[in-house]
Amino acid sequence: LGALVLFAAYTEDIKHFIHLANTTDQHQFFKGMEPLTFSLSDPYVICGLFFGGLLPFLFGGMAMQAVGRAAQAVVEEVRKQFRENPGIMQGTSKPNYARAVDMLTRAAIKEMVVPSLLPILSPIVLYFAIGMVAGKAAALAAVGAMLIGVILTGLFVAISMTSGGGAWDNA
After folding, report:
1. Which of 166, 151, 163, 161 is nearest to 63 (CA)?
2. Phi/psi class of residue 26: alpha, beta or left (left: φ > 0; alpha: ψ in -120 to 50)?
3. Structural contact between residues 119 and 134, judged by C-beta atoms closer than 8 angstroms
4. Rounded to whole angstroms, how far apart are CA atoms 34 and 15?
5. By CB neighbour count within 10 A (0-12 exposed, 13-18 middle, 19+ buried), where does 1 fall?
6. How far apart are CA 71 and CA 73, in angstroms?
7. How far apart are alpha carbons 109 and 147 in whole angstroms?
8. Segments of the chain with pLDDT less than 50
9. How far is CA 146 from the centre of its chain?
10. Helix 136-170 to helix 2-23 angle, to the nearest 10 degrees?
């Protein structure tokens, strides 16, 4: 529901800016533009839908790989502590929990930088790519269609990962 509100806000803001640009001297970037339409016969809208539909899968895959790499770093740290301190296995000494947690936190933050940039940079890249080929109106329509694609596939990816994660957790 929140994602649909985001799309509605996007389209209403674009309409508002186009209206202001055509009736006043404000927002000259939108001067001369017609109101946006999201027609399925527009190839740039279809491009935006496909690009947006890809993003939840791409983000999910990148995030899972990041978690796997961070988990591998934890495994290496645990093995290192076992080698350096044999008393851990015998129960005579305690592992260095703080070092493992600190290392895991750093690895998790580092690994999630690129997946976190994906939702920020993808609309910008799509806008400029379509904008260079077809102009501002087509680029704005493609970005709006990208939002629709993310909403549609993101919903089903979220449901799939939720039920799949619960199944794996209880297996």
Report:
1. 161
2. beta
3. no
4. 9
5. exposed
6. 5
7. 26
8. none
9. 12
10. 170
What SS3 state is found at 34? coil
Rounded Cα gap, residues 145 and 54, in angstroms:
12
CA 25-27-32 angle, to 5 degrees, is 80
- Residue identified by tokens 């799309």 is 7
Q: What is the pLDDT of residue 171?
A: 64
- Using DSSP's 3-state secondary structure scheme, residue 61 falls into helix
Residue type, 118: L
pTM of structure: 0.75
From the centroid of its chain, how far is CA 81? 36
Exposure letters 14-35 (e unless 16+ CB within 10 A, then b): beebbeebeeeeeeeebeebee
How many separate helices (H) and strands (E) can be counted in the chain? Answer: 6, 0
Unique residue bearing structure tokens 């001067």: 31
Q: Which of 129, 61, 73, 141 minimizes the C-alpha distance to 106? A: 73
- Alpha carbon 151 to its chain centroid, in Å, reads 11
* pLDDT of res. 1: 66
Say what the pLDDT of residue 90 is: 81
